[in-house]
Amino acid sequence: MAEMEVADKGGKKGPGVKKGKKLSTRVDLTPMVDLGFLLITFFMMTTTLNKPKTMEINMPYKDEQEQIEDETKIKESVALTVLLSKKHRVYYYEGMATDPENTPEVKITGFNPEKGIRDVIINKKKDVEEMKRRGQLTAKDKTTVLIKPDTNSTYEDLVNILDEMAINDIRVYAIVDITDVDREFISETEKANNDQ
Amino acid sequence: MPKKSTNVDMTAMCDVAFLLLTFFMLATQFRPDEPVTVTTPNSISEIPLPDADIMLITVDPDGRIFFSIDNQKVREDLINKLDEMKGLNLTEEEKKSFVIGASVGVPFNRLKEYLGAPPEQRDAMDKQAAGIPTDTLVTSERNELALWIKEARYSNPKLRITIKADAKASYPDIKKVIGTLEGWKIFKFNLITGLKAVPPGTAAYEEVMGGRKEE
Q1: Which of B6, B17, B199 sits opposite A37 (nearest CB)?
Q2: Residue B42 and residue B196 in contact, taking contact as beta carbons nearer than 8 Å
């Protein structure tokens, strides 16, 4: 394969007959192909074909001068509070725990696709729809999720919960600072579960 | 029986090889060198990263912050301004090394030393770098990230702000970055994530499927 295919086949003319110096114009392309593929491999390795994807987030407008009153405008019945805690644990309760007399039931879940926070959100949405049908809420009311990441949660948890908002089509959500009351809820739930 | 030659004509194969080569050469975008390896979390979002005018804030697992913008012209403006403002006394060489360099993750008081170092040494410094100091409040004297962001936005107001953080970075570290952005009244920014499939049986899944049916 790797030869220059010199016109040497005219040997049949017999000995002593000098053949003309007619060289074939064919060139062996094997090394060129080798080189070509080497470069292809190099470019394939170094290239980033899939561009990174991004997730757009809009934080609520915040101003030091303006006092935030939005939180009180949300009805308790449409709200779901989600607390992100250590080891990717998720605590949640209905409402916003604005009434100190009436502590909500705090439950624990995770990001697992089965029986995780997703099911909780889907159920909450169903509940809100149900209440709208019964006329307890107006059409304007939307399921609202308050996300409160604790200091020992990770960025992954935050992205996961924001992703759940996109997955479950929750239009109204907010990332809020965690309060001491919420921390209390977490530690109480941990105690109740013997910190499992 | 005539003996068949084993010679194969390579011309066609060569053509294909070079065609592919040309394609990859044109389509390629070299991986920008990053000071730290960051594994981003995944989301279902499919919005691609814009091509130009990006400000990239990288947060590594230890919460160290690195800052970068893509446009060399803007980088030049930025370093000139910061040099003047902070009295860094950078030489032309050091400025040049910032303009063509990658992400920066050192406090201002070490910036001269960092930019003056040869590239190999800079890689080593990146490994131990403290990251750009930041705080939740923009007004804080310690918040150097706030100054970087502010000056970069003066140089190019169109900059899109993207945060590339490691999945293991802790929330308070992210909170500082977001807090700083909020302090400058930036409420809209992008988080760089990997791609994961939309789980079936959810609202987003139905939306995606519905969209496909209409097409």
Answers
A1: B17
A2: yes
